[in-house]
Amino acid sequence: MTVHTPIYLDYSATTPVDPRVAEKMIPYITEHFGNPASRSHPFGWTAEQAVEEARDEVAKLVNADPREIVWTSGATESNNLAIKGAANFYSGTKGKHIITVQTEHKAVIDAVRELERQGFTATYLAPEPNGLIDLEKFKAAIRPDTVLASVMLVNNEIGVIQDITAIGNICRENNVIFHVDAAQATGKVEIDLENLPVDLMSFSAHKTYGPKGIGALYVRRKPRIRIEAQMHGGGHERGMRSGTLATHQIVGMGEAFRIARLEMKAENLQIRRLRDRLLSGLEEIDEVYVNGDMHQRVPHNLNISFNFVEGESLIMAVKNIAVSSGSACTSASLEPSYVLRALGRSDELAHSSIRFSIGRFTTEEDVDYTIALMKSKIGKLRELSPLWEMHLDGIDLSKVEWAAH
Amino acid sequence: MAYSDKVLDHYENPRNVGTLDKNDPHVGTGMVGAPACGDVMKLQIKVNDSGIIEDAKFKTYGCGSAIASSSLVTEWLKGKTLDQAAEIKNSAIAEELALPPVKIHCSVLAEDAIKAAVADLKSKQPA
Predict the structure, then answer these.
(1) NIF system FeS cluster assembly NifU N-terminal domain location, by residue (chain B) (predicted)?
(2) Contacts 24+ apart (CB under 8 A), A229-232
(3) Per-residue model confidence (pLDDT) at position B2
C-alpha cells in the first residue's frame, strides 16, 4: 500500500466529513430545503422531522434527553452561550465569581475575560504538570460568590481527560453551575449526562467527522438550568438561540454522532494501537518528552516535545505530514503554546512541541512513514542546533545567561 | 505561512553549517538570542593574517527564517574585512530573503550575531 502525502495527522484541528455523513446531508441542501420553522406546509415538516431525528442522535451519544440539546454554530458559540448565558442569569442570586483552568480553549478563556470586563472576577486554575487539575485546589478556589465553573473534558492540545465526575460533585456540593467543553471528547470517551453532575456541555460536529459550522449545547432540565440568550430573534430553540436552523448541517451532525455511537468502541481500539506504534517509534529518538498524562488521555492525541529543535522549523521540515505545533487557533502567532507553559514546561520544550492527532482514516503505513520522517528530520535539525551541540558538550542550558531579545 | 524561495533554499540546503575552534585566536564567536524567544544563533568567523574573513560557520536553533538568515550571512562574510562585516545591515538580509514583517527579528538577530562575533575576535587580538 502506498502512502499519500501529505498525511493528515491533525484530527484534533478538524476531521474530514465521513462520506456517509456527506451523503445523508446532500438531499437537505437541494430537495428538502424547507425551513424547519415553517409549520404550514410539508417542506417545513420534512425539515423539522430531520432536525428532530438529528437531535435524538446527538442526545443518544451523550445519554441526554433530546429536549436538552440546543443547536448552535459550533463549540465556540456553545461555550459563549453557556458561560455568558449562565453567569448573567445567575449572577444576581449567586454572585459574580467564575472558576476555569489556564489550559482551557480560548473560546472559554476569552468568554470569561469578557465577563471580567463586565464586572465579574475569575480564577484561572493552574493544572498539575501532567495537565490534570488537583481537586483540592479546585475546591479551595470556590468562594461563596462563585456562580460558575468551566472545565473541559478532553484537552485539545494534550488530550488529557479531566475528572469531570469529581469536579462536578464538588460543584454540586457548593451550588456552582458546572459547564464542560466536550468539543474534543465526543466519540473518544463515553459521556453519560444522565449520571454526570454536569449542567451545561458544549459539542462540535467537525471534530467527530461531521461538518463545520454546527454544534450544540446541552442544557440540563432536571434540575433545570437557565441561560440568557446571546442571540436574539425569532425565538428558535426555546428562546435560547434564535436563528433559522441549518437543516443540512444538523442532519450531518446527527449522522456523525450516530456513527460515533455505533463505532467508537472498535475505532478507539484501532486508534490506540496506532498511537502506541507511533509513540514507540518516536521514543527511539533521544530527548523526546510526552506532554500531558499518558494514562488519563484519549488515544487519538500524542503531543511530544523534541528537545533542542524549534517547533516552527520542525513543522517546515516535515511538510509531508500535516501536524501542528499547538492548537490551530494559535498557530498564527509566534508564542509558544500557552497550554504547555501552564504545565510548567521550559521555554525550549514548549517551543519544540508537535501535536500528532490520529483519526478514523489513519493507517499503519501513515504511522510508519511518520516515524521514519521524524527520525531523519530531527537528526538534520539537531545537526544545525547550537543547543543540541551544547547539550552534547554537557552544558546545562538552564544555567546559561542568555541575551534575551 | 508562505516562505520565499530563497528562504526555502537556505533552509533545505543550509550553507556552512558547523563549528570552529572557539579557542583559536583567529576565530571569533557570536552567540545571540535565547531559547525562551525561540531563536539562538551561533556564528563563527575565522580571519587570516591579513585580517580577511576566510571562513564562517553557523548553527541556529529557530524558525526557517532564522536558519536562512544565518546561512546567508556566512556566505556574505567570506572575503570581507572585519570592518566590512560590521557594516552588514539587517535590512539587507531581510530584503535578500524577502522576509515578512513578523520575521524581521530573524535578520536583526543575524546582524547582532555578526557584531558579537567581530567583537569577540577583536577582544582576542592584541591592541
Answers:
(1) 2-125
(2) A229/A81, A229/A85, A230/A77, A230/A80, A230/A81, A230/A84, A230/A85, A231/A81
(3) 73
